[in-house]
Known about the structure:
Layout: H1 5-8, H2 18-25, H3 33-41, E1 46-48, H4 59-65, E2 68-70, H5 72-84
Parallel strand pairs: 1-2
Amino acid sequence: MLENxxxxxxxxxxxxxxxxxxxxxxxxxxxxxxxxxAAKAASVDALVTLDKRHILDQPELEKxxxxxxxxxxxxxxxxxxxxxx
Length: 85
């Protein structure tokens, strides 16, 4: 199933603006700011990550990007629920 994920899950590459990255630095470490800035600019439904130290389990980051921040297993379960829901 995962080998076909890009066939049925829409995605695009987003290059956030410098200003968007600067705004993200207010809520996350500089190295992670471009990721959050891109997620926010793309108006994602969810950001999937394994970064337990800086991104996961931080509600303020979900609020900043207005989206869920999930571990891969959580994202898979969420997608399956949405698809079958």
